[in-house]
Design a protein that fits this description.
The structure holds two protein chains of two kinds.
Chain A lengths: L3 H10 L7 H13 L1 H21 L5
Helix pairs in contact in A: 1-2, 1-3, 2-3
Chain B lengths: L2 H26 L2 H17 L10 H19 L6 H18 L18 H5 L2 H13 L2 H11 L5 H8 L3 H24 L5
Chain lengths: ~60, ~200
């Protein structure tokens, strides 16, 4: 079973490269039972969305 | 283009100059280079205003020009990052990691990520972006450089490796570190605080 620390590494890497099948399965299982990592994963997407927004001049 | 419209755009260009400068400084962390990039962008915008189609916002158009200028600057300078210099950035990272996880690598009870309420609503607030930029600025320099190349300038990781001379696994570690630092900063300074 992945630790949260390992899971956060994969949640970052999934933003940069396709994860391997074992990595994907391991991460899915972990996130399924871990509320902290479920939130962390959403937050990775928020960071990307915020960067896109700032980088396209779409900020108020 | 009508002369009136031209004047309007020129005035808007002046108004947007501080925004452009802030963006360039954030990306380059070098006031002189940022100033150059903005000057060139403003010149290109003045000369090329007939190419601006009002389907997008003027600011979006300017930022896209500026982004290309920044990419040119990064490509032209030697931006090689010696692996040893990344070690400086790592020291702070170890502290962060130790504060977030216990010895078995699980979240500490106090640091387990909670839900971020309605990020889209935050995106509409000026104050949020001040905090966001401050958090970006707070990242260690080399970590920030790699993160900016990836998230703002649209580089793929193999291009970052080529430009900076670091390995792809190192690159992933650096990006992970950047995201973790940025997330923690935003969490503390905005989402968990009074901002949201």
């Amino acid at each position: 079973m992945l630790s949260c620390k390992q899971a956060t590494g994969l949640m970052s890497q999934e933003q940069d490269r396709p994860l391997t099948v074992p990595e994907r399965i391991g991460l899915r299982l972990h996130v399924w039972i871990c509320a902290g990592c479920t939130n962390y994963r959403r937050q990775m997407n928020v960071l990307r969305a915020a960067c896109r927004r700032l980088g396209s001049g779409g900020t108020p | 283009m009508e002369p009136d419209r031209q004047q309007e755009l020129n005035a808007e260009l002046q108004t947007l100059r501080p925004d452009l400068l802030r963006f360039a400084r954030l990306q380059l962390r070098d006031a002189g280079a940022a100033e150059d990039a903005v000057q060139e962008t403003m010149l290109a915008a003045l000369l090329g205003s007939h190419r601006f189609e009002s389907r997008s916002s003027y600011k979006t158009w300017l930022i896209s020009i500026l982004r290309n200028k920044i990419i040119d600057i990064i490509r032209s300078q030697s931006r090689e990052i010696p692996a040893s210099s990344l070690a400086d950035d790592e020291a702070g990272d170890d502290l962060l990691t130790a504060s977030l996880f216990d010895q078995r690598g699980h979240w500490q009870p106090a640091t387990q990520p909670g839900r971020w309420a309605d990020p889209e609503a935050s995106f509409e607030q000026r104050q949020f972006w001040i905090v966001f930029e401050a958090c970006l600025d707070h990242l260690p320099e080399k970590t920030a450089r790699v993160f900016m190349m990836r998230e703002f300038l649209g580089f793929e990781t193999d291009e970052i490796c080529k430009e900076t001379g670091i390995s792809s696994s190192n690159c992933w570690v650096v990006l992970h570190r950047a995201r973790m630092g940025l997330r923690t900063c935003l969490d503390t300074k905005w989402f968990a605080g009074a901002g949201a």
